[in-house]
Design a protein that fits this description.
single chain, alpha+beta
Length: 107
């Protein structure tokens, strides 16, 4: 997750360049790279799958995404659960959420 704002006029190649050169990460890795615009009402998610990129785009008609500022230039790693919260308009540091439980094998 890219902190702060990103120019969302960038397409797949521009966002992949940010991931590779700006963050020193591999855009071909099995990860989602999430970017938000300055007004915090639009997101783009870059994803590599098999032999091509997916570019997911979301625009809110009302409200804004609770997006972290640019205090630290490094990207932020979040869980799938936190991404779902973010897409639902909730802060990624939910204090009232139940802790995540991992299933264990019963013998």
């Amino acid at each position: 997750m890219a902190r702060g704002s990103t120019d969302l006029r960038k397409s797949i190649d521009g966002l992949a360049a940010i991931v590779q050169e700006g963050f020193a990460l591999d855009p071909f890795s099995p990860a989602l790279f999430v970017f938000c615009n300055r007004k915090r009402d639009k997101l783009k998610i870059l994803q590599w799958e098999h032999n091509g990129f997916w570019l997911h785009y979301r625009r809110l008609e009302r409200g804004v995404f609770p997006w972290p500022g640019e205090e630290h230039p490094a990207p932020m790693s979040i869980s799938r659960r936190q991404l779902r919260w973010l897409l639902d308009g909730l802060p990624i540091d939910q204090r009232q959420a139940h802790p995540e439980v991992k299933a264990r094998t019963v013998l």
